[in-house]
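Is this the right way to post structure tokens for a design question? Let me know if I should format differently. Anyway, here goes:
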């Protein structure tokens, strides 16, 4: 029997997942039997943007990512982008009705005075929602199928691929992200973006994998040792989700 608390958690998870699906990114369903409880984020009633649930416990990725970092990163940092977005809807109603991916792919449609806050906050919302789904406790450790073949063809091996993506993350001065994408020519490509810029505005056909290299993603555990964080992060990668992102037909 579910308790009232369990029912509230389930309702929050379903609401967050529905918003995420509408926005154009996949969020894994919570699995209490395997991963513990979903993140207890309660959606603000009627708000167009919500923080999607993690689908696993805050401590589920330890020892690689600690529970305190996950709690602050998910609830406060991602939450701040969502709160800002909901505040921007009053000034720009189309923000809540236009697909997130369409706006991020062509920010020129956003009024110039709002373009920077939309890029920062909508980009932060999309990037983080994508990121949470790319991590899983106890997942498969290797890419498989078509994704593995594409990585081997493009980079020679998984080890070479990881080295190149880590280099992109380490080479990003200040805050940002490192990405594996399918480019407009259908080829795998690796690059980094600054701040909360997304690969969508760079014309990526599909985004396969990305890692957050903002200090808030790792500083509590790794301090300034970004290389150590990146090395540990690969132990959390949800390769099944990455394979699904690779196979996804562009909209």
């Amino acid at each position: 029997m579910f308790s009232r608390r369990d029912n509230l958690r389930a309702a929050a998870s379903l609401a967050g997942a529905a918003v995420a699906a509408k926005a154009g990114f996949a969020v894994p369903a919570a699995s209490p039997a395997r991963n513990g409880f979903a993140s207890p984020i309660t959606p603000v009633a009627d708000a167009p943007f919500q923080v999607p649930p993690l689908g696993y416990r805050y401590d589920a990725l330890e020892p690689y990512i600690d529970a305190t970092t996950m709690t602050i990163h998910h609830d406060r940092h991602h939450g701040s982008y969502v709160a800002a977005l909901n505040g921007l809807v009053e000034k720009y109603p189309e923000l809540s009705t236009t697909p997130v991916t369409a706006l991020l792919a062509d920010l020129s449609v956003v009024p110039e005075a709002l373009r920077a806050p939309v890029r920062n906050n909508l980009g932060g919302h999309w990037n983080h929602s994508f990121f949470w789904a790319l991590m899983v406790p106890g997942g498969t450790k290797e890419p498989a199928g078509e994704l593995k073949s594409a990585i081997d063809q493009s980079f020679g091996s998984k080890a070479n691929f990881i080295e190149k993506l880590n280099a992109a993350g380490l080479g990003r001065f200040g805050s940002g992200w490192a990405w594996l994408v399918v480019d407009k020519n259908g080829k795998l490509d690796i690059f980094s973006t600054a701040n909360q810029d997304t690969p969508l505005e760079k014309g990526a056909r599909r985004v396969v994998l990305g890692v957050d290299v903002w200090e808030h993603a790792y500083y509590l555990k790794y301090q300034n040792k970004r290389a150590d964080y990146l090395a540990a992060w690969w132990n959390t990668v949800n390769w099944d989700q990455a394979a699904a992102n690779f196979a996804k037909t562009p909209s």
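Format looks fine. Someone answered above. Worth noting: The domain at 145-247 is CATH 3.55.40.20 (minor pseudopilin epsh fold). Confidence is low (pLDDT under 50) at residues 1-41.
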